[in-house]
């Protein structure tokens, strides 16, 4: 249960030397206030956004917690698991119903628990999974969820086991990704398996559909949906494969490193491993490749790199996402830092938002980018959010409300726009105190110049006269 | 006034020639002097040296104010019982004074029928001797005394006439409370005695009636005392005695209505007996030891001063808590066995020593004496300090609006506004249960939940400043320590080095209290101790049913000061364990008035050594700017620099704004430091650290927080901090050359800081509260633009309206931000009854390295 901690020495020893240092004052970094949410006592591995002002965190301390991210209040704690929670999932109520949102937690203790998020009450404790629960996914179309581990199980909303399938792979299932209404992909080591769900009446059946042709040579580290009806898988060896959700065939491959020696790197460091990918819009994939950020143009066969930041972090990037309505691309890493990337400040002469995240990120509109075909943009480091004393696992964006990050130090840090917070407080106080400002100024200023020894003596004398005496 | 003139002219002997002779001169200077003696016509060098007071330079025999407790003894007449503090007033004739003050009031108590007399107050102004006193007479009742009364009086004796005049009302108030402590306990005892007495009388009457029926036995060989008594009494006599006693009972009964007080006394008693019954448990032994020790010191200190007592009496005092069976006021279980009246009773021989004060007021006397000590400590300060403090006392409310710098009250941003305080938003309501609950959870839970992994706080050797809110502000006064140095539990004074920072919790202490938590959570039924621990300073707990209106209208420093002290000290008596006491303290924030700070400057005061620091570090403006902009400052020293680090932290504390402990804590020196973590930034603003002897791989200030703190390395004489470009702090720094000593410089600093605070005040009211509206409507396309515009506007406001240099804007912004945060926290606390995490400002300004 020892928590990870990256000491500075380790960082110095790391192989990467030429990592960008951020400008001292960080003029472009708006996150100037933090709230530290303390609850977890071990690594926080899962973080999920509930709605615009709440999130759930869960971790190795076997508990999950619900937070209000406006003021950092802890709203609920979900405790009951005996071993670390590996994955969490939210089941939103059916549209039109007034049910509360359900939280599903899957843990190493082979239990799946269903909680009411509002009350903190544990509604179901599912034990039939019989193996460590590694991942969860919901299939909203059927109002069921599936869990993966040694096997695959389908569960009703109420926690009733609907079906169970053995996993053809040797290892546990690590990722589950619903790709179409009734179809989902399970990633197990370097293999991908597609399943279909057949749901009629009360019975539900998971059927093995296809074993996707073996492309990856190492374990898959990231599995995402891409907006234009495809999905992508990235693996430890650096390979990213784009698959069609319809035909289930590989469309394209990027970042292929042929030599095993090369992708393994020194000491099996896997310098090109894909830890995380996002596809904020059609046609591009942002990938965390080792310590670097790559943006691939997936419309072209060869996978042109639109933007690239080599050695963005000192250690591997664990998670990346856009923050503040796309203002920043943030990456977090094992080195404990969260870095904010974007256009260089000099180029920011027009203050409008660009149409899409990619444009914002590169500072070039789609048209211009297409004209400058061969050019690879290098994003500029706009800010560095340092605070975690261990690896930063992941973060969740809440737009203007800031973002929440969680890490190996058991902390959740809520990063806030300092000026906005300041304004909010001022406004709040202003509303409460009303519009009597002018009078304060006068009274107190005169009050200050008031002589200290006034009239008291006279009064005291009067009092003395009244008092009984001899 | 007249005396001042005399003084002025006193030295003018050289010019006496023009008046023909000394006699003429004397006649000229004081024609109305009554007792002119021959000596005054003689040149001073011819006069014999003896202790006749010198009228030219009238010196009071009183060097230091003290409290004198005197009684009218049946055997000896008026006599002093004790002085507080012990041994004061050495030059002063206490016996004589006791006679004087007791004779003043004695005529009041000469009624034929029993009545309960009220306390009387007198002010004695002995101009000639330079002795001024407030005298408070009160009567205790004793079944064994003549007329059942034991006249006592307390006198506050001072040499300062003005103090007496101006503080009369406050003294009256405070002494009344003390008197109440004494007399309530006393009345309870008296009532009990009377009841027993009635039973005795009735029993005697029965015996007499029996005796009458029987024929007298002439040859009674064993003539006992009983028979003696019976033979001397007649039934009618006994009946009249019964009537008298019943009358007394009737008079006393309705006066005993203060359930709160009774409960407290009962708790004291229960606690005592409980601790005795569980004698073998080590814990309680220790506890009792403390009680014992306390009593002993008390007795030694004060009772030694009593007129010599017989050994028996002495023993009984000492044994009050050990082998002697202390009377149980509240034990209703045992039925009283009536006895025949003893001869001593009705014969009234008055050769027997009467009960002493402790015996007369079981359980109440200790509290009363503590209170007296507090009163003495409070009033013995300089008059100017008292008055300034009284003026500034109004600044505490509402607590959320209070800005302090260096723990000294500077300004209240919300004074006179009242809207935040008046409820409506549920703010700063001292009796708000939610608030109380929150605080308790806070103290017990949150701090400890932070494990050492992400904080330097270690469970055992950690610094633990406790948690408190802006609502729990109480004044203390700095000179309290030297008066109370004997007290084993003196933890309230900031002037003791280990007081201000931390209360070291042992893990067990803190984790133990599910019990304590329960107590705090279960509201009023759990007992008054919970109430007391959360009362804001305005509700005085012990001995107050003095009308509350008076308190709410006249909230002054000393109310708080005294109540704070007596709250805590009465806890001593009652709280179930020392742990409770500690956690109670941690909930209170101690702020002092600048006047008191200046008055009681000593080597451990905040700010001591500031000139030395300035002399040593040329980069002092940067250091001060760091503190005044809310950037945490770490003072880093070598392994053996603990003293130096502590000294610097103490000195720099003078410039640290804010007082709410979780956010603005000061840690003088951590000898076994760990890496600073993000969590710590939320709590500490000024932190001293010593590098461990053996270098470890991880630095004390790791990269995760390095950007947000300034580091003053005293070993390498280096400061890493943002550059300071403003003027205000530089001015404060430069002016040090004009002031040669800290005694004069620190008042100057207070003035400058007040000036700074007033600017922040205007900024707060005129900018902060109005500006958001302009940002509300204007939806900025880009959040960065919003930030830029806001900063620009802020700087412009400071420049044009406050004539503050842009370099000083962060200071103004931070000072107003402190108040905003307090208000917001207060609101959140009341509306959620929950702890909100503290927000940490990340100061990303560019840092430079300065060579000291």
TrEMBL record, chain A:
SUPFAM superfamilies: WD40 repeat-like (SSF50978)
WD repeat ranges, renumbered to this chain: 102-125, 213-253, 310-341
GO biological process: regulation of autophagy
Keyword Cell cycle attributed: no
InterPro entries reported for this sequence: WD40/YVTN_repeat-like_dom_sf, WD40_repeat_CS, WD40_repeat_dom_sf, WD40_rpt, WDR41
One cellular component term from this protein's GO annotations in UniProt: lysosomal membrane
Keywords: Repeat, WD repeat
Pfam families: Beta-prop_WDR41
Name this polypeptide is given: WD repeat-containing protein 41 isoform X2
UniProtKB/TrEMBL annotation, chain B:
InterPro entries assigned: FLCN/SMCR8_DENN, Folliculin/SMCR8_longin
Location(s) in or outside the cell: Cytoplasm
Gene Ontology MF terms in the entry: GTPase activator activity; guanyl-nucleotide exchange factor activity
Keyword Signal attributed: no
Domain UDENN FLCN/SMCR8-type positions: 57-820
Signal peptide: none
Entry GO CC: cytoplasm; guanyl-nucleotide exchange factor complex
Chief localization: cytoplasm
Alphabetically ordered keywords of this record: Autophagy, Cytoplasm, Guanine-nucleotide releasing factor
Superkingdom, natural source: Eukaryota
Keyword Cytoplasm included in the entry's annotation: yes
UniProt-listed GO biological process terms: autophagy
PANTHER family to which the protein is assigned, alphabetical: GUANINE NUCLEOTIDE EXCHANGE PROTEIN SMCR8 (PTHR31334:SF1), SMITH-MAGENIS SYNDROME REGION GENE 8 PROTEIN (PTHR31334)
Homology family: Belongs to the SMCR8 family.
Protein name, as recorded: Guanine nucleotide exchange protein SMCR8 isoform X1
Species name: Lingula anatina
Gene coding for it: LOC106170591
